[in-house]
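Subject: for your reference before the review

Hello V.,

The reviewers asked for a structural picture of the protein, and I figured it would be easier to keep everything in one thread rather than splitting it across files. Below is the amino acid sequence we used in the manuscript, unchanged from the supplementary table.
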Amino acid sequence: MTLKFARLGTAGNEQPAVIAQDAHGAEKYFSLTVLTQDIDGGFLASDGIERTRDALNKGELPEISPEGLRIGAPVARPGAVVAIGLNYTAHAAESGATPPEVPVVFLKPTNTIAGPFDAAPIPPSSEKYDWEVELAIVIGQEASYLSTPEEAEGCIAGYAVANDLSERDYQIPGAGAQWTKGKSLPGSTPLGPWLVPASDVDAGGLRLQTLVNGEARQDSTTSDMIFDPATIVHHLSQYMVLEPGDVIITGTPEGVALSGRFPFIQPGDVVELEVEGLGRQRQEYFRAQAGSPTQPGAAAPVSINA
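And here is what came back from the structure prediction:
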């Protein structure tokens, strides 16, 4: 039984839920509040996914309706958001870079995490705001100085869709470049709609897509990754402690605006991103005003099947 973990409700007040199919294939939604207050590192590290399966099989979780509820990021604010750059050969080429021999690593502030359907702010002075569909890893067990990629696989709780929004004028110009500046803007890491357990996902061949105003931009698969998820987790564990609930975004395929083939995001644009089996995001973009960097209001409720 494939499970989809989600957090429903207004920003800061999301409630944990799980989506599962009944015997007839219909998806139903169940509250997880009898098991946990939130979908976070503590829940994942304490076998929360397997405890959820057991509770569903025993009929212990109350069914709920998601109608009218905002969909938040599927994991409560993580301790770290770690990102991998230039992890698809074709994207490295369109960026004018040589494919890396070891993972390119940078960090994003955890306050960049946003819901997958929240209105998305473009910085007040930005002219080169760019999309990046990515496969996100969610850590389920502490990872430190792991011996092998096979050991790293056991530390992955599941996967989700992420958008690594990037301001290219802030990120790239200058002798040293400034990746942190270009990757740390408010709302610049929409995540979700679901967390799907690693045991239910073959991460090696998932299709990734991006549409801007209904027009195709990115269309690739994770088989084109230079470094696969287990290799990434193993590598990172040699340099940092990954804790349960941490999020790793694993790089984007070709088809970004930086390539010069497409215009950058403008106010009023709609960007939709999807990773096969992990759901679809949809963001409408607006120009943030000085002193008001976040969204102008709560995102309209969106069906979790969108």
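For the response letter, the relevant points are probably these. The longest helix spans residues 48-57. The mean pLDDT is 93.

Happy to draft the paragraph if you're swamped.

O.
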